[in-house]
Amino acid sequence: MPHSERQTIEKLIETLNCNETVTNFKQKRSFIFNFAMIWNLFEDRCMDNFAKISKVNNFVESHISINNLEVDVIFDYFKDRYKVFDNIYDTENLLWKEHEHTYRDFVIEKFRDTQCSHQNKIKAVLYIIFRLRNNLFHGEKDIAIINEQKRTFVLVNKFLMDLITL
User: Fold this and answer.
1) Which residues constitute the domain of residue 31?
2) What one-character DSSP code corresponds to residue 140?
3) Which of 39, 63, 86, 116 ranks highest by number of CB atoms within 10 Å?
4) Which residues contact residue 88 at a Cβ distance below 8 angstroms, ignoring those fewer than 6 apart?
5) For 128-138, what is each residue's pLDDT tens digit?
6) Domain tally, the chain
7) CA–CA dist 25, 20 (Å, integer)
8) What is the pLDDT of residue 2?
């Protein structure tokens, strides 16, 4: 017999061993629902319904209106998030796939570049968002502690919505 949404969430709460009400559980994690919906729109409207990290460069280069996109806040957030010290950055917790090392290296290079172009900041941010998406949807995030990622996903959601609505 199908479960109601409430029963599904109750089962999630039980499985995760969270001591929360259904309402509280949903409210605290709404940013994940928002991300799933926004990602769907991004993939449809910006990636021809098939998002691949390898398509980011062409997407950014071919959209003139992208120059109007605010990227500094999220770029600086990620730059600070992945900074170890001075000019050393570690993005390995994004679990880059073996064939994605060029993207990882690009992100780190742009973090170090004090004159990083607007378009390169957008590319770096999108490369990170692709890894966040893959890690979330393919089980690399610990859903029990996903709330620690709230600020990240709130910024990502805003950035993607701004991008979609250019």
Assistant:
1) 5-164
2) -
3) 39
4) none
5) 999 999 988 88
6) 1
7) 6
8) 55
